[in-house]
Structure prediction request, 261 residues.
Amino acid sequence: MKSGAVGALERIKNPSRVARLVMDQTNRAFLVGEGALKFARAHGVPEQNLLTERSRKIWLYWKEKLSGRDDWMERGEEEQKDPDIRWYIEKFGVEDFRPQGTINCNALTASGDLVGTTTTSGLFFKLPGRLGDSPVIGAGLYVDGEVGACGSTGWGEGNIRLCGSHTVVELMRQGKSPQDAALATLERVVNASKYYRDKNGRPDFQLNYYVINKKGEYAGAALWNGSYGLAGGSKKFTPSRFAVADAGGARLQESPYLMKR
Ligand code: ASP
Prediction:
């Protein structure tokens, strides 16, 4: 039940380091924005400009393509020949697709302690000030040393509303296995998100939980069995997976899921 978090923190490559300092070196739980940056500076955590040339160009391309009725004009074919823009199109397609990037990692130590961290760059092209679920204790991560640990990736808003990771851990406290607790929580998120549906009435978002309990039993669980990416222009299916490392080595496993594409 020790925790530390930072959010809306810019210019710091590894925010989880700063979150760890909040946990170990303050009597507070959550620092955000400018205050979190000042705290990181005070501890000598290096600052850097994280905007790469590729990211800048991709943002500009996305911005220009959004609407033909605003002041940002598209540059057409010439722009699409730029290797950085090509990289984006080949990886994600030309449509308004907004990838995300989160890592959650939970562990049971040899001495029986449970630990976890969730770290993210958040959602591409988000509203300034938008905070996802990753740094929110109980949503993107929850660790109770007596019961288990859970973290998430995917649609942050749906997960925040249901305090997803906390719910998973509470269901394990009541006796559910990591897998059953995670799938039951995904079902609750789906039932609580009736306005977020595709044209067939199915959830239009992905959400994943990664869970371990005090006994070392673990599970990954996904709302959808995987996703169709537009890699190289072909619709390639990537199954929902999670990584495990234990005495048997490190490996990827496919996640049990609620719904099939
Ligand atoms: N959960 C993250 C967020 O909502 C995104 C992600 O998992 O990639 O910000």
